[in-house]
C-alpha cells in the first residue's frame, strides 16, 4: 500500500476531489494549511496573523491506496491541480507498512 500526499492550491481542490471521485477514488482526507517555500507564487501570498511571514494558503490531500492505483491517482491530481504557475504544489508517495482499525485493532491492510 502507498500513501499519497498532495499539496494543492485552494482554487483547484474542488476540481481535484471531483475528478478523483468520478474515477472511483472516494476515500481521502483534506487539511487546510499555510506554507512557504522556494515555489511560493508571489501573486498569491497573503500575510498571516498567526505566522508573521509571507505564505501561501494550500490544501493537503491524503490518500492511502493499493500500489496499482498510485500512477492513476497522481495523474488525476496533476491534470486537475495545475495552473502552470510556480507554486502549483507537490505530490509525495510513501510506503504504508501497516494499517489498523482503531475500533477493534484488526489489521486492515489491503494487498
TrEMBL record:
SUPFAM superfamilies: GlnB-like (SSF54913). It holds the Pfam family P-II. InterPro entries: N-reg_PII, N-reg_PII-like_a/b, N-reg_PII/ATP_PRibTrfase_C. One of its GO terms (molecular function) is ATP binding. Signal peptide: none annotated. GO terms for cellular component: cytosol. It comes from the Bacteria. One of its GO terms (biological process) is regulation of nitrogen utilization. PANTHER family: NITROGEN REGULATORY PROTEIN P-II (PTHR30115), NITROGEN REGULATORY PROTEIN P-II HOMOLOG (PTHR30115:SF11). This is P-II family nitrogen regulator. It comes from Christiangramia fulva.
Amino acid at each position: 500500500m502507498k500513501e499519497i500526499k498532495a499539496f494543492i492550491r485552494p482554487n483547484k481542490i474542488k476540481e481535484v476531489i471531483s475528478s478523483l471521485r468520478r474515477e472511483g477514488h472516494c476515500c481521502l482526507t483534506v487539511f487546510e494549511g499555510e506554507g512557504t517555500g522556494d515555489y511560493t507564487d508571489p501573486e498569491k501570498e497573503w500575510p498571516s496573523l498567526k505566522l508573521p511571514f509571507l505564505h501561501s494558503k494550500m490544501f493537503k490531500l491524503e490518500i492511502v491506496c493499493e500500489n496499482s492505483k498510485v500512477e492513476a491517482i497522481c495523474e488525476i491530481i496533476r491534470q486537475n491541480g495545475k495552473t502552470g504557475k510556480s507554486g502549483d504544489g507537490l505530490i509525495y508517495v510513501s510506503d504504508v507498512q501497516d494499517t489498523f482499525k482503531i475500533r477493534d485493532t484488526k489489521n486492515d491492510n489491503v494487498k
